[in-house]
């Protein structure tokens, strides 16, 4: 008799695992500041809550395709409703895009480091993840390195813009070089809304039909627990995503919440303003303490503290012990330990983080 494990697809055993268990720890310690998850610290407004409460009253019914919401979103990008596929947070897009483009043995090119969910979802399709380290001096994408890694098996390229965890935007001309390859390209704009002055790259899909954009409301909109995101692409691309997504993947409540926040842009503006104000304070404080913060354009800042001789594990433990602050572990970059990532929390939590920094590194 075969054992159960031998019935599973072989790549189940070899794929990297994305471990979300820190969430169980964080929820069980409500007095700890969760500055490690790129969450938004500000809860949904009453307007969003009311919309969700109204929607749940119809919770016995299956949701429709959300045409009014898709139209609203499309208009924000100069696109139509059929250029928009709604999803249950962009993690669902990450999963669907791997299944759309990768057969076992096919390759996806991305940077290292990257958002940790991408490699496992590719590997769970039997795909091979080709990761090209970011440039050492500025942590920018190594565009030449990524382009040189393209071969016959390359079926997908990923550019997160701005990148996670480094926080940097790619140059427009470099992004266009990826588009020019003709290979399907995911431009993940999870953090773009923290930069209202920067236009979205959605126009690329008009010139390059193999390009699609992934957007989430988990960050600037603060919907990480509500779960809402969308894909922008040509009608052909969107039809393909909709076949891969499950029907009814977005709940009535999530759609209602999304519409309510889009009708109330002030809520988004205030959340972005809170984040960006604290990001600047973190940056200045880290610099003052002799650390190397990277100029970041999302809700997270990568800080290089390797010059202090402390390892990442030591720093994370000290923040927990001294101020009950969770920071994000960042693996070695170019062989060096001592990097960590921090996301602004509430005012009170941010003050605790600063207190820790001054006491530990000062
Ligand atoms: C680049 C990037 N894409 C997607 C996601 C996942 O977002 P969602 O909550 O919409 O699944 C994250 C979350 O941190 C991210 O950093």
SS field, number of helical segments: 15
Global geometry: globular
Fraction of residues in β-strands: 5-15%
pLDDT average, as an integer?
97
Largest sheet: 7 strands, mixed
CATH fold topology of the largest domain: Aspartate Aminotransferase, domain 2
- How far apart the termini lie comes to 63 Å
Specify the helix fraction band.
40-55%
Overall tally of domains: 2
**Radius of gyration of CA atoms, rounded to a whole number:** 21 Å
The helix/strand class is alpha/beta
Task: Tell me which ligands are bound.
Answer: pyridoxal-5'-phosphate
CATH class of the largest domain: Alpha Beta
Order of helices and strands: HHHEHHEHEHEHEHEHEEHHHEEHEEEH
What is the β-strand count? Answer: 13
Protein architecture, described:
The structure is a single chain. The chain has 15 helices and 13 strands. By secondary structure, it is an alpha/beta fold. It has two domains: 132 residues, Aspartate Aminotransferase, domain 1; 219 residues, 3-Layer(aba) Sandwich (Aspartate Aminotransferase, domain 2), CATH 3.40.640. The strands form three sheets. A seven-stranded mixed sheet has the order 2-8-7-6-5-3-4, sandwiched between helices. A four-stranded antiparallel sheet has the order 9-10-13-12. The model has no long low-confidence stretch (mean pLDDT 97). The structure holds pyridoxal-5'-phosphate (PLP). The site of pyridoxal-5'-phosphate has 13 residues, from helix 6.
């Amino acid at each position: 008799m075969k054992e159960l494990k031998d019935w599973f697809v072989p790549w189940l055993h070899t794929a990297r695992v994305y471990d979300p268990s820190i969430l169980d720890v964080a929820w069980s310690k409500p007095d700890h500041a969760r500055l490690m998850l790129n969450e938004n610290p500000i809860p949904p407004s009453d307007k969003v809550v009311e919309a969700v409460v109204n929607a749940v009253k119809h919770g016995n019914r299956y949701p429709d395709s959300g045409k009014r919401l898709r139209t609203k979103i499309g208009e924000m990008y100069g696109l139509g409703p059929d250029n928009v596929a709604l999803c249950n947070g962009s993690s669902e897009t990450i999963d669907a895009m791997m299944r759309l483009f990768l057969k076992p043995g096919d390759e996806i090119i991305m940077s290292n480091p990257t958002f940790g969910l991408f490699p496992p979802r590719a590997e769970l399709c039997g795909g091979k993840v080709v990761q090209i380290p970011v440039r050492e001096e500025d942590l920018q994408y190594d565009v030449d390195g990524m382009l040189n890694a393209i071969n016959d098996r390359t079926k997908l390229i990923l550019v997160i813009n701005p990148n996670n965890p480094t926080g940097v935007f790619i140059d427009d001309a470099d992004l266009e070089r990826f588009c020019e390859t003709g290979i399907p390209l995911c431009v993940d704009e999870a953090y773009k809304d923290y930069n209202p002055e920067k236009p979205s790259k959605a126009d690329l899909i008009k010139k390059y039909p193999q390009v699609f954009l992934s957007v989430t409301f988990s960050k600037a909109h603060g919907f990480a627990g509500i779960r809402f995101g969308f894909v922008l692409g040509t009608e052909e691309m969107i039809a393909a995503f909709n076949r891969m997504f499950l029907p009814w993947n977005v709940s009535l409540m999530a759609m209602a919440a999304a519409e309510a926040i889009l009708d109330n842009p002030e809520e988004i503006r205030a959340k972005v303003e809170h984040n960006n104000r604290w990001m600047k304070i973190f940056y200045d404080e880290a610099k003052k303490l002799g650390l190397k913060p990277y100029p970041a354009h999302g809700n997270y800042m990568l800080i290089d503290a390797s010059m202090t001789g402390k390892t990442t594990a030591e720093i994370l433990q000290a923040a927990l012990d001294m101020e009950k602050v969770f920071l994000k572990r960042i693996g070695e970059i170019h062989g060096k330990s001592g990097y960590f990532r921090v996301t602004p929390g509430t005012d009170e939590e941010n003050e605790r983080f600063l207190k820790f920094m001054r006491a530990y590194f000062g």
